[in-house]
Amino acid sequence: MILTNSIHAPLILSFGAALLYSIIAFNGRFFNQKLRLVTWSLAWLLHAITVFYPLSSDKILFGFGPAISCTAWLVLFVYALESHTLPQLQSHFRLLLLAALAVLLAAFFPGKAVSSTDIFWQPIHWALGIASYSIFGVAIIHASLAIRAEKQLRKAMSPQTGLPLLTLERLTFHLSTLGFILLSLTLLMAIGLYYTHPEFDLKLNHKTLFSVLSWLVFAWVLAGRYFLGWRGPKALKLILLGGLFLFLSYVGSHFVQEVVLGR
Q: Which of 20, 56, 108, 197 is deepest in the core (most CB within 10 A)?
């Protein structure tokens, strides 16, 4: 869940961030390293303003658009840290285009107003949820690259991942483990808030169902990985399945409510 206020983050900043992301995605290979870094940093900072600026108001909104935008912003941050350590990583093009789309979604679909609460732990619960979304987002990107590399190897083609397949797969599971820990803390905190604060909204609905399904899938595949040595496309596809359930748990359910049903 991500917060924003009733006044849209300035559209010029959203369009500016989206434009810069797109420029780097399509033309970044023609830039020198310094220019690419400056352009990327400026886009990321503009994106950050669209994420945090709305917190300056007392009237709070939340929805699938800001959730996707904040997740994309954090995914780019994690990916940038990874790229600094592993410069061979190669998925910038798709990632930057997804970030451009995410920042525009938040501008046009800012969510709906909710009443704020005085529960101290609730913002931490929200932050943990977004963090788990983001870490799993990077893991899913790596899982997709690993699956594609596996198919290329089977066809006697040279994989274009930039990293050895085993290294990419190991990185995927390390990130999935971290994401699983954050997701577990998010769910445990939701249960704790529900029992200690009656006003905390925890319903048995699609959001809860998909969150639990996601947790079960990730628990299953990580247990298989660490205790039975699971690896390869089948294990990686389970990570994609868990990511799909996690996406449906919040973003998917709120997309249906806000856009399809207009609630």
A: 20
Same domain as 219, residue 193: yes
pLDDT on residue 120: 52
128 shares a domain with 90: no
Pair (6, 101) in one structural domain: yes
Q: How many domains does the chain have?
A: 2
Q: Is the domain of 140 the same as that of 189?
A: yes
In terms of Cα–Cα distance, which of 17, 12, 7, 1 is closest to 56?
A: 7
Residues 25 and 88 in one domain: yes
Under DSSP, the state recorded for 87 is T
- Per mean pLDDT, which range of 10-14, 123-127, 208-212 is the poorest? 123-127
Q: Do 257 and 151 sit in the same domain of this protein?
A: yes
pTM of structure: 0.78
Domain that holds residue 45: 1-116
Q: Which of 116, 132, 158 is the last residue of a domain?
A: 116
Beta partners for 234?
Answer: none
Helix (H) or strand (E) run with residue 3 in it: strand 3-4
Residue 51, classified by CB atoms within 10 Å of its CB into exposed (0-12), middle (13-18) or buried (19+), is buried
3-class state of residue 66 by DSSP: helix
d(CA 253, CA 211): 11
Write out pLDDT tens, residues 104-159: 988 888 777 655 555 556 667 678 888 898 899 889 988 888 888 888 777 766 66
